[in-house]
Amino acid sequence: ITLSEFVLDKKKESEFAEQLEVENNIILGNDLKQCIQHIEEGIIRQFSEYTSLRLLSLLSLTEEGLSSKDYRHFVKLFLQSFGHDHIITLLNMKKMGLLFEQNLTNHILSPVSGGNNLLNTKVVAAMSAFPRKSHFRATIKRLNLIPPVIDSGYNLSNPTDAGFVFGGIYIPMVCRLIETAIINNDKNQDELLKMFPGEYSCKELSKSGHRRKEKTVLVCFIGGVTFAEIAALRFLANKKRITILVTTTSIINGNIAMKQIGPE
C-alpha cells in the first residue's frame, strides 16, 4: 500500500508539473499544437473536468478565441466525456467570455435561410451580447505582465517583481493595474481602465491638511481572490513601502471558479 501511495503521489506531481508547463506555453504562445493535444488527451482520459475547462478557457482568452473547428470539437468531446449536464457550464462560460469562437460575429449575423425572420432577429440580438474576443494580448503589452527573460533565469528566491507567484511566467493583472494606475498615478488612467469590461469611475479625493507618511490602498474583490493574488499584492506593498488592505467575498482558486460556473 505504501509503495502504491508513493507511485500515485509521484504521478500526481508529474501531472501537475506537466499542467504548469502547458499553462506557461499557452500564456507565452509557445507549442500551441502540443498544448491542444494535451487538453484533448486530458478530456478523453477524463483526468479532471475542471482542469480541462481551465486550460480551454486560458487558451481561448489568450488566442482571441478558438477556431470554429476546435471549438465545436472540444465542446462535443467534453460533453461526451463528462456528461451533457455540462451544457450549462459551457453556455455560461460562453456568456462570460471565457470560452468562445474566433470571428463569431460574422457567423452569428449571417441570416438563416428559410427561417422565421422574427426568430432570427431575436437570436442575433441575444448572441450579439456575447463577448466577441479577448484583449488579453493587448492587456499584457500595456501592463507589461510578462517578466523580462534573462539568461540566468528568473530568480524565485530573490524576485524583483510579483511574477514569482506564477514561477516567473506571469504577473497577476490586478497587481500591475494597481501599481500602474494608482500607486504610480498613471496619467492615462482613463485609457487604461477602458481596456476592461464594465463601468468605472475615477475620482480624486480632496486632500486634507494632514499628510500621511504612508499611502494606504484598499482593494476589494467581488467574487473572490486567489492566494497568488494576495501574495503578489503583499510583495507590491513591501516593494513600494505602502499599506495594501485586501477585502473579498471569498478565497477561490481555478477549480472553485469552474464549479461555480457549472450546473451544481
From TrEMBL:
<dbReference type="InterPro" id="IPR043155">
    <property type="entry name" value="VPS33_dom3b"/>
</dbReference>
<comment type="similarity">
    <text>Belongs to the STXBP/unc-18/SEC1 family.</text>
</comment>
<dbReference type="Pfam" id="PF00995">
    <property type="entry name" value="Sec1"/>
</dbReference>
<protein>
    <submittedName>
        <fullName>Vacuolar protein sorting-associated protein 33B-like protein</fullName>
    </submittedName>
</protein>
<dbReference type="InterPro" id="IPR027482">
    <property type="entry name" value="Sec1-like_dom2"/>
</dbReference>
<dbReference type="InterPro" id="IPR036045">
    <property type="entry name" value="Sec1-like_sf"/>
</dbReference>
<dbReference type="InterPro" id="IPR001619">
    <property type="entry name" value="Sec1-like"/>
</dbReference>
<dbReference type="GO" id="GO:0016192">
    <property type="term" value="P:vesicle-mediated transport"/>
</dbReference>
